[in-house]
Amino acid sequence: MNLNQTLPICIAGRWRLGQGDRYATLYPATGEAVAYLNAASLDDVEEAIQGADVAFRTSGWAQRKPHERAAVLYRVAQLIRERGEELAQLQRLDNGKPITETRNLVGSAAATFQFFAAACETLEETITPSRGDNLTMSVYEPMGVIAAITPWNSPIASEAQKMAPALAAGNAVVVKPAEVTPLMALELARICEEAGVPKGLISVLPGKGSVIGDAITLHPLVRRVSFTGGTSTGKHIAHIAADKMMPVSLELGGKSPTMVFEDADLDHAVAGVLYGIFSSSGESCIAGSRLFVGHGIYDTFMERLAAGAAALRVGDPADERTQVGPLITARHRESIESYVALGIEDGGRLRTGGMRPQGAQFDRGNYYLPTIIEDVRNDQRICQEEIFGPVLVAMPFSDENDLIEQANDSVYALAAGIWTRDYKKAWRFGRAVQAGNVWINTYKQFSISTPFGGWRDSGLGREKGRLGILQYMEQKSLYWGM
Ligand code: NAD
Fold this sequence. Notes:
Number of strands: 21
InterPro entries: Ald_DH/histidinol_DH, Ald_DH_C, Ald_DH_CS_CYS, Ald_DH_CS_GLU, Ald_DH_N, Aldehyde_DH_dom
Distance between the termini: 58 Å
Bound molecules: nicotinamide-adenine-dinucleotide
Active site: 251
Structural class: alpha/beta
Keywords: Oxidoreductase
Domain Aldehyde dehydrogenase: 15-477
Helix content: 25-40%
Radius of gyration: 23 Å
Family: Belongs to the aldehyde dehydrogenase family.
Shape: globular
Strand order of the largest sheet: 13-14-15-12-11-17-18
Largest sheet: 7 strands, mixed
Number of helices: 14
């Protein structure tokens, strides 16, 4: 990617300047411009979707044998790996995550393409059951134009999670990355084309969600929206989808409880809780942001946790030793600061953090220290609303029935963490906690073969997993007269 020129965007295989407003993407660590581009215009949206529909119907991609589509997607995975370091550095500039994290995200994008290439090949074997005297066949057909709308916090991984299965299923994909982080989606589109995905099947349309995202969602030729982002945006998209009778999948927000029991391995639990909330600067839908600690170990545990949080290395995302990078934008940091102020106003007590780090090296970036707030109640706003930053609220518990009620007392139900040596307790709480993803003596452990998603306000549908490809296909039953 040549960052010295205004970047072209991808409109149904044509790489040209968008017709919307020109803007710069900024490096969160310094506020400097990384790239200039023009957002997509509404005319660009129309051209991209019409072009995607034509490519879907005429490129022959959907008619290729699954192993032929798979071969192209394996090549995408290979190209991502070959260019891994370059992509990881670009993503660091795009959203300011530490380089060690962006390398993982790039690796995960490659693994996702590889996995859905394999899923596409094996799907062929599942479509021909027959019954009784008559032959019936249940087959899956691609849907047409799929919209992939993604947030700024894990670009490339979020985009791969939608593009790989949608393409594997034979569809065209229109990607709408977050306005502030468009670079990885653009690179991924280039890589897909280089690997042999027919031109026109992929578009990347950066721009404002309320304009470009809305126009894409509303377009009659868009047959499915796969959305990752905030809950209010997800609900808005769900309303449009209901009117269009269009399936959607929604990966939304969270306020995930982590429960540390008195019999937990404390070294392990301290490290896991710190990682669960402060990795990615807390800008993670699954951040373990509500902590419940057994009364008997509360003081010891919190002392160790606060010391661990204060010792985390906040700083330059290019530095291999950095554990907590800057936040995405200055505005987002202000929102986090106002949440911390609210928590304190409501009676919370700062255990650590609660401010910007001091020092000239932090002056230009959107840095904020890992923050822990105690003396809060689960029903307060600081414990109920998603902050999406490095802020942990902590509460002691003494009654296990009360604990599960509090853990489940949230509109969100995306993830949960349990730390205990007692496997029966882990089982009991693992079943009782309401969440799409529960980690036991670990946190943020992922597997591409395991379905991922949330309950209630955390979303609808599941991504990943072998059957994740089916959400991008329509089922059809064929009945044969004999
Ligand atoms: P957001 O909802 O503001 O934006 C997400 C995407 O939707 C962006 O591309 C945006 O431009 C677009 N968008 C905004 N308004 C739109 C509209 N009216 N129509 C169509 N598209 C629109 O969210 P964000 O601030 O970018 O991301 C943070 C949120 O994402 C957090 O709530 C976080 O929990 C959530 N998230 C969830 C998951 C998950 O897997 N559950 C993963 C990552 C992030």
